[in-house]
Amino acid sequence: MDKLANYRNFIKKILTEYYEWASNTPREGVEECLAFDEVRDHYFWFHLGWDGKRRVQGVMVYLRIRGGKIWVTDPNAIAMQRRILYTASHLVDETPKLFYL
Fold first, then answer.
1. Which of the ends of the chain has fewer CB neighbours closer than 10 A, N or C?
2. Whole-model pTM?
3. Domain 3-100, CATH 3.40.50.300 — does that match?
4. Low-confidence residues of the chain, pLDDT below 70?
């Protein structure tokens, strides 16, 4: 499997694990969602719904692969960054470099 395919697989795996964790502590009226666009290499974990009369929506994590690099949109997602680096270093010969949008 090539490097990009490995990146795609472990990004989906990591986001799915976080999604499942968040789904185990559901908020009534709010849904956790995943969206993977492997053609354009965009990967989202987000939530949406209603909290009473208040609309709830937000992207928890948005990752993308661009130019053979993983781009992270939220530099505060430190735990996820460490997980990506650790996992990637075991899947490919090099540790990926994370870049921020």
1. N
2. 0.76
3. no
4. 1, 75-101
